[in-house]
Write a structure and sequence with these properties.
Elements: E1 2-5, H1 20-28, E2 32-36, H2 47-53, E3 56-58, H3 61-67, E4 70-72, H4 79-82, E5 90-93, H5 101-110, E6 113-116, H6 131-148, E7 170-174, H7 178-190, E8 193-198, H8 201-210, E9 215-219, H9 222-228, E10 234-237, E11 263-266, E12 287-290, E13 293-296, H10 306-327, H11 329-335, H12 337-340, E14 343-346, E15 349-350, H13 353-358
Parallel strand pairs: 1-2, 1-4, 2-3, 4-5, 5-6, 7-8, 7-10, 8-9, 10-11, 11-13
Antiparallel strand pairs: 6-14, 12-13, 14-15
Helix pairs in contact: 1-2, 6-7, 10-11
């Protein structure tokens, strides 16, 4: 199979879909790999590295799309790429369709095979291709939240770890999934007081077992959320519904109950956000303020640490890329039921139920 790796063109996205090591494995399996010139530079991988691994370097993104049977990338295609995608071409990347009707309609029109990293699902319900980026984003959420709590950044002026004689900052984490646990771990490591909410008692029991005593678990409901937003300095949105739009756990009117300078980091922004006032931002312009509450909702947080993120991503995507290349998408998805759950749009039809539900489309369209 001919596999293409284009340069990411989303704002401040420095990750790349494949490392030279991944290219080496594909070439070893007798596949052809085209890499766009400069695609890996942001992650610390250069054209020579890819050529030594066996890739052919192409000058433009248009050439990569035109000459490849499968595209392996990181972020969803943006408008400039829509017309480059070909009928029956496999596109393997993060899509997060439920948060963008425009993207969804564009991919339906392309009649491509859209396989989404974020919905590939193991038998135990885990999301193996989403997990590493959720780990990165969860840890980064505390780094960014701590920074924007500083007064020059319009935050409350709170040091999360406190100092002797001064109480530590308070962090509220919505969701005890991968993002929430990684955020709680980082915040606890800094010495902050952490409250983590979830509706899954198994997850809360796990958190209670593995976290130190200054990480407190509570059942998630509107009453508890309203109670805690009044006295927590940093709020992390880490709620995920597989393939579907995130629920709004914090509404616009609830912002008035927060203290001025409270910071919200909504990691769920890719799926629409779990705060009503969330809208996607970029690393170039990461925050906005509503009712004196600082909102940080960068849609590609791991893109700020591209070396770590690219390595972590390729570690988990490469086995699936090899299956798709070796077997073709139909055989690979029949053979691997986890990969089959990654099928979102196939030849102009939505085949992932939650996407159709997100836009209230008729079932016939799915």
């Amino acid at each position: 199979m001919i596999v293409g790796v284009p340069k990411e063109i989303k704002n401040n996205e420095s990750r790349v879909g494949m490392t030279p090591a991944g290219v080496f494995e594909l070439v070893k399996n007798n596949h052809t790999v085209y890499v766009q010139s400069g695609a890996g530079e942001g992650s610390g991988f250069f054209n020579d590295d890819y050529q030594q691994a066996g890739a052919t370097i192409l000058d433009t993104i248009g050439q990569v799309y035109a000459m490849s049977e499968m595209i392996v990338k990181v972020k969803e295609p943006i408008a400039e790429e829509y017309n480059l995608i070909q009928k029956d071409q496999i596109v393997f990347t993060y899509f997060h369709f439920a948060s963008s009707e425009t993207l969804t309609k564009a991919m339906i029109a392309s009649k491509a095979i859209c396989i989404a990293y974020e919905t590939v699902e193991d038998e135990d319900g885990t999301l193996p291709l989403l997990t590493p980026m959720s780990e990165v984003a969860g840890r980064m959420a505390i780094q960014q939240g701590a920074k924007y709590l500083e007064k020059p950044k319009k935050g409350r002026g709170v040091l999360l770890g406190g100092v002797p004689g001064v109480a530590p900052g308070r962090v509220l984490v919505l969701g005890a999934g991968t993002v929430g646990i990684q955020a709680a771990k980082m915040a606890a490591g800094l010495g902050a007081h952490v409250t983590i909410l979830d509706i899954n008692m198994k997850r809360l029991r796990y958190v209670n077992d593995v976290m130190p005593s200054h990480v407190v678990t509570e059942f998630s409901n509107e009453f508890n959320i309203r109670k805690h937003i009044k006295d927590h300095d940093l709020i992390i949105g880490g709620v995920l519904l597989k393939g579907a739009k995130a629920p709004n756990l914090i509404t616009r009117e609830m912002l008035k109950d927060m203290r001025p300078g409270t910071v919200i980091v909504d990691v769920a922004v890719d799926q629409g956000g779990c705060v009503e006032t969330t809208r996607p931002t970029t690393h170039e312009d990461p925050i906005y303020i509503i009712d004196d509450v600082v909102h940080y909702s960068v849609a590609n947080m791991p893109g700020a640490v591209p070396y770590t993120s690219t390595m972590a991503l390729t570690n988990v995507t490469l086995p699936y890329v090899l299956k798709l290349a070796n077997m073709g998408w139909r055989s690979a998805c029949n053979f691997d039921k986890s990969l089959a759950k990654g099928l979102n749009i196939v030849e102009g039809k939505v085949v992932y139920e939650e996407i159709a539900e997100a836009f209230s489309w008729e079932p016939a369209m799915a």
